[in-house]
Specification:
Elements: H1 2-7, H2 23-29, H3 34-46, E1 50-51, H4 53-63, H5 68-83, E2 91-92, H6 94-109, E3 116-119, E4 127-130, E5 135-138, H7 151-171, H8 186-190, E6 196-209, E7 212-217, E8 220-225, E9 230-231, E10 241-249, E11 252-259, H9 266-271, H10 291-299, E12 305-308, H11 316-330, E13 336-340, H12 352-367, H13 371-376, E14 378-382, H14 401-410, E15 414-416, E16 421-425, E17 428-434, H15 437-444, H16 454-465, E18 494-498, E19 504-508, E20 511-515, E21 525-530, E22 535-540
Parallel strand pairs: 1-2, 8-11, 9-11, 12-13, 13-14, 14-15, 17-18, 18-20
Antiparallel strand pairs: 3-16, 4-5, 6-7, 6-10, 7-8, 10-11, 12-21, 16-17, 19-20, 21-22
Helix pairs in contact: 3-4, 4-6, 5-6, 12-14
């Protein structure tokens, strides 16, 4: 199997670590592989692993034809692959060695690659941080996620958020071992019989009594005195997680500074997930490791994804502007167009179903006028808060077939996504949500920022919180068992938030945060994303196009 993979790599570049040797040569060398087996066993033990005898024999037979330098390099690659897996025991089986070898070879031999995927919020993988192993492990198969979970699910949701942020914070250079700052749990304060000067606590900001804020973690809660607090950048609301620095006196934590947990680059975060696909999609492994997808992404400089939010199909002027937009892109079709609701300008009450169905048929007839666009562009429909007949709880399901049957007939290259949803283009990871998150954060923050740079505050908030909607559940309800779909960890390449406020484009920690704004109310503006360069372009239809 190993040499069959090598034969498929004959056209690879000279820089590849493995070159093809004849099978006859391999067989002649297999009689003297004891030193190779010894090298394999010692290397595995050095990395805390124990290899089975049949696996060792198989691996030694594969690398024995190579010279010493190549042998050690391939051994390092296989060990690295094994360490990234979620092993239940330290014993390495033959099947794992085979998988490791094939994984090292497949980047040059893989054929059917899907460059664009739409991932449902209900299909996002669920990983739980293991404190003992210091890595994220997949949710056990015995645990079934429910739409309406028990009260334990609600507690677990907040506990998982806390654990995620705590392990990330403890890795930061300011809080790692030997540094000047040290996190303390709430129970450390509660168990202290004296005053404590300059203590730092990570916990959730709550209001257990009216007009009285507390900081809470799994060990307890303590009241806060915010009268002298200095607020860092961001929107501080109930249910968000904060770092509090202050003095503990008379059973009250007198806050001197209030900030968010430090964010982390995606490259560092992915180390603790191994090679697992934590973003979602059809691939078992993280697409960031695919060299072929990376080359496709960089070579296709004309690829672009168009994001349009708040498309009121019951407004004649909006429909006419859509005609201009589709006609302009018919000659140069984008890779994908993401059309976000709301698709009606007002609530229709009992008439919502019939009106929305009629307007979706109108959209289908409109798109059918542009065959070149239909043939080359993927259309993604994301419902808005007013488009669903279900409860106003995140994540929201896709539009039901009753609304979309006309679109399916006339627009074959279309997909109806949940809200939020995830998009994967080659190695790029994109999160899309249609919700007035920024508006709700501004309304519910306990201290409005002194500067008016709302985009910067919003980007800092969601990225530091590693969550799309760090709001109280009474303001923005969430299905407890599906809270993972709203997390931003590891950070994606692009976050698109469809909010009705003015459009913006900002970035933080190498993650772009974009709001297309309202197409219908914001002067018919939209955003265009170019994956090859990771740039976002502001676009707008001029008023004189009609």
């Amino acid at each position: 199997m190993f040499f069959e993979c090598l034969k498929l790599r004959n056209h690879c570049s000279d820089s590849l670590l493995f070159r093809c040797h004849s099978i006859n040569t391999a067989i002649s060398i297999m009689s003297d592989i004891a030193p190779v087996k010894k090298l394999i066993v010692s290397s595995m033990k050095f990395n805390g692993l124990s290899i089975r005898s049949d696996a060792c024999d198989y691996f030694a037979a594969q690398i024995s034809p190579l010279d010493e330098a190549e042998r050690e390099e391939w051994l390092d690659k296989v060990v690295d692959y094994i360490q990234k897996q979620t092993l239940e025991t330290p014993f390495v089986e033959k099947q794992l060695i085979e998988a490791a070898i094939l994984d090292c070879c497949k980047s040059e031999t893989e054929e059917n690659i899907t460059t664009f995927n739409v991932i449902s919020a209900f299909d996002v993988p669920h990983f739980v941080y293991n404190i003992d192993r210091k890595k994220f492990l997949p949710l056990p198969s015995s645990k079934q996620l429910e739409l309406f979970g028990s009260s334990d699910s609600k507690c677990q949701m907040f506990k998982d958020r806390y654990t995620l942020l705590k392990q990330r914070t403890l890795r930061h250079e300011l809080f790692s071992v030997g540094q000047q700052f040290q996190l303390q749990p709430v129970e450390y304060l509660l168990s202290s019989g004296s005053n404590i000067h300059r203590v730092i606590v990570l916990g959730m900001l709550t209001q257990l009594k009216e007009n009285r804020f507390y900081i809470e973690d799994p060990s307890g809660c303590v009241p806060l005195d915010l009268s002298q607090a200095n607020y860092h950048t961001g929107f501080f609301t109930e249910s968000c997680f904060v770092l509090v620095e202050g003095n503990y006196k008379d059973r009250v934590l007198h806050v001197q500074a209030l900030g968010f947990p430090p964010p982390e680059n995606a490259e560092i975060s992915r180390i603790y997930f191994g090679s697992n696909n934590v973003f979602g999609g059809l691939d078992e492994l993280n697409v960031k490791n695919s060299e072929k997808l990376k080359r496709l992404e960089e070579s296709n400089t004309d690829a672009m994804i168009v994001f349009i939010s708040d498309i009121w199909l019951d407004q004649h002027k909006v429909v006419e502007k859509l005609k201009v937009l589709f006609a302009g892109y018919d000659d140069f079709p984008p890779t994908a167009m993401v059309l976000m609701g709301n698709f009606l300008s007002s609530k229709q009450g009992s008439q919502l179903a019939s009106v929305l169905k009629a307007k979706m048929k109108l959209l289908a007839d409109l798109l059918a006028l542009y065959p070149n666009l239909l043939a080359n562009t993927k259309f993604v429909i994301v419902p808005g808060p007013g488009d669903c007949l279900t409860a106003n709880i995140l994540p929201r399901p896709a539009l039901i077939p009753f609304f979309t049957e006309d679109l399916v007939k006339k627009v074959p290259n279309i997909e109806f996504a949940t809200n939020p949803c995830r998009l994967q283009y080659c190695t790029q990871e994109i999160v899309v949500i249609r919700e007035d998150v920024i508006t709700k954060l501004c309304r519910n923050c306990i201290h409005f920022p002194s500067t008016d740079d709302i985009p910067e505050h919003f980007a800092k908030t969601v990225i530091s919180q590693a969550h799309l909607v760090p709001l109280p559940l009474c303001v923005c309800p969430v299905y407890w068992d599906h809270d993972t779909a709203l997390r931003l960890y590891p950070l994606p390449d692009l976050v698109v938030v469809g909010d009705q406020i003015k459009s913006f484009n900002t970035s933080h920690m190498n993650c772009s945060v974009v709001n297309p704004g309202s197409f219908s109310k914001g002067g018919f503006g939209f955003k265009v994303y170019y994956p090859a360069t990771k740039t976002v372009e502001d676009s707008q239809l001029p008023e004189d196009t009609l």
